[in-house]
Amino acid sequence: MMISTSITQKGQVTIPISIRKKLGLKTGQKVAFTDRGKEIVIEPIPNFLDLMGSLKTKKKYDKRKARKAIGEYLAQRYVKSTS
Predict the structure, then answer these.
(1) Is residue 1 part of a domain?
(2) How far apart are CA 35 and CA 57, in angstroms?
(3) Contacts of 8 (CB under 8 A, 6+ apart)
(4) Is residue 40 a part of any domain in this protein?
(5) Residue 12 lies in a domain
(6) Cα–Cα distance, 38 to 59 (Å, whole number)
(7) Which whole-number Å values give the CA distances from 25 to 14, 30, 67, 69, 71, in the listed order?
(8) Measured at the alpha carbon of residue 10, what is the angle toward residues 9 and 14, in degrees to the nearest 5?
């Protein structure tokens, strides 16, 4: 199936609704582009917060602790990449 669309002056394109439905894309969701020579593959990037509540645990989710842990992890990765 081939569907065409136009590129705006800002380099943006609208993903046709049939493709968005097939990939399960929602407004604001992130996508990844993979260059495979003459093809570009678009894949949805899953949002781990969508999984919240799918597993049962006795621990409560603490947004502040989660953000702090992510910040510390990213800081460690940055330090390693600049060393």
Answers:
(1) no
(2) 40
(3) none
(4) yes
(5) no
(6) 48
(7) 12, 8, 25, 28, 27
(8) 90
Q: Which pTM was predicted?
A: 0.52
In angstroms, the CA 30 to CA 24 distance is: 12
Longest dimension (CA), the chain: 51
Is residue 31 classed as helix, strand or coil in its secondary structure?
strand
Question: Among all chains, which residue has been given the structure tokens 């969508």?
Answer: 50
Q: Which two tokens stand for residue 79?
A: 């330090």
The verdict on residue 9 lying in a domain is no
56: Cβ contacts below 8 Å, ≥ 6 apart: none
- Look up the domain containing 25 and give its range: 17-82
Please state the domain count of the chain.
Answer: 1
Structure tokens at 81: 């990449």
Beta bridge partners of 44: 31
The predicted-structure confidence for 18-65, as pLDDT tens digits, reads as follows: 999 999 898 989 999 999 999 999 999 887 777 777 777 788 888 999
